[in-house]
UniProtKB/TrEMBL annotation:
PANTHER family assigned to the protein according to its UniProt record, in alphabetical order: POLYISOPRENYL-TEICHOIC ACID--PEPTIDOGLYCAN TEICHOIC ACID TRANSFERASE TAGU (PTHR33392)
The protein's name: LytR family transcriptional regulator
Superkingdom of origin organism: Bacteria
Any Pfam family matching the protein: LytR_cpsA_psr
Family: Belongs to the LytR/CpsA/Psr (LCP) family.
Cell envelope-related transcriptional attenuator domain sequence ranges: 54-213
Length: 297
């Protein structure tokens, strides 16, 4: 059912970043829903053992076996949601308050989902995963390059194995980014909007998925074994491998993308009490859009 995409899902979650990327299963009420697997990929900020982290990146990877498509849905981290026993706050605060369990519960209750499994990476593990996969190819535009190089300085320092001088990006166009460069690209935020940032993160995932889809099934075991140490998942290795090995057609799946909430049904504002930037969203319209994207063709 989950095919090669489940493997991609794992790797995608490993990477992001950016995380980052948790595997989630939605309610399966009809034929279509039974053929759809959803995975929430969680990328937490900071590094392991350095205090409380927030979910810097949250992307739902949908594997739609009925319509033969992969779908990436970015959940804006600044949306206001009701966090159980905490009240209304930003979505990414849930992870800091109660880890993955509270984040899952918050997403399920606010978006009418039934997510269960997960995969989590932090900044350092994201770097290691990208390097282990040989990097990613990203089309860097002229506007991004200066901001990217500024963030590269910080991200280089997060790498466990710093070798040689910092490598900056000197040209626009398609660039092969290593681990700390890819993390920097995923973390660009002051140049434009939070939604552009989410889009850049999805570009990295899409590139990783494309590269992995060209990987021979005979190499899956060695790849998973080399990467599994970098990700926190609640899915057994045998289950991941089983899902990966039964699928040979994922490479032909289309990749579709969605930003949640929709531009038409959201509003950026600052809270009067503390001036914090938040995103308010029209619940009914956005949830309808989300479920249609996930389960529709």
């Amino acid at each position: 059912m989950t095919n090669k995409k489940n493997l991609l899902v794992l790797f995608i979650s490993l990477i992001i970043f950016f995380s980052t990327q948790s595997i989630y299963a939605l309610k399966q009420d009809d034929l279509h829903e039974k053929m759809v697997d959803n995975i929430l990929l969680i990328g937490k900020d900071g590094v392991e053992g350095k205090g409380a982290s927030r979910s810097d990146t949250m992307i739902i990877l949908t594997i739609d076996n009925l319509n033969k498509s992969l779908k990436l849905t970015s959940l804006a981290r600044d949306i206001i949601v009701k966090i159980p026993n905490r009240g209304y706050e930003k979505l990414n605060h849930a992870y800091a308050y109660g880890g993955v369990d509270l984040l899952i519960k918050t997403i399920n209750e606010n978006l009418n989902l039934n997510l269960k499994d997960y995969a989590i990476v932090d900044f350092r593990s994201f770097i290691e995963i990208i390097d282990a996969l040989g990097g990613v190819t990203i089309d860097v535009n002229e506007k991004e390059i200066n901001h990217l190089n500024k963030v590269i300085n910080t991200c280089y320092g997060l790498s466990e194995q710093k070798e040689g001088n910092i490598e900056y990006i000197t040209n626009i166009g398609n660039q092969q980014l290593n681990g700390y460069q890819a993390l920097a690209y995923a973390r660009i935020r002051k140049m434009d909007t939070i939604y552009n940032r989410d889009e850049r993160q999805r570009k990295i995932l899409a590139n990783v998925a494309q590269n992995l889809s060209n990987t021979s099934v005979t190499n899956y075991a060695s790849i998973v074994k080399s990467l599994i140490k970098y990700v926190d998942v609640n899915i057994s290795f045998s289950k991941i491998m089983k899902m990966a090995l039964i699928s040979h057609e994922l490479a032909s799946y289309d990749i579709k993308q969605l930003q949640f909430p929709s531009e038409k049904y959201r509003e950026e504002t600052k809270l009067e009490e503390n001036g914090m930037f938040v995103v308010k969203w029209e619940k009914d319209k956005n949830i309808e859009m989300l479920h249609k994207f996930i389960y529709g063709n």
